[in-house]
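Hi C.,

You asked whether I'd gotten around to modeling the 96-residue construct. I have! Everything is below, sequence then structure, no commentary in between.
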Amino acid sequence: MEKAIHFYEYEPDMPIFHCWKTTENQLKLGKSTINTIQMGLLHTRLFELGYRIFIHESVDEYYEIVLGGNNERTNREIKIGHNLFKMWQAGEFTRY
């Protein structure tokens, strides 16, 4: 079963987890699809838990973060040791 976590940088018109603890519990349960605004949980451990990571900037604009060098939003090779939240916060994945 494929698992995906969708981080939203805006308030979507859909059911979404606003609470950090609730989102963390969904991860512990291994839910197949998680929608959240809790960007602080953007971490490489999600790869280890088997999740694909998607960042939604707006209704029509989203991108995926993957391990390795196949990322459309950065030239950096993403490794398990990277802090994805700090990279996102610093604008690493911002499209100019």
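If it helps when you're writing up: The mean pLDDT is 95.

Thanks,
B.
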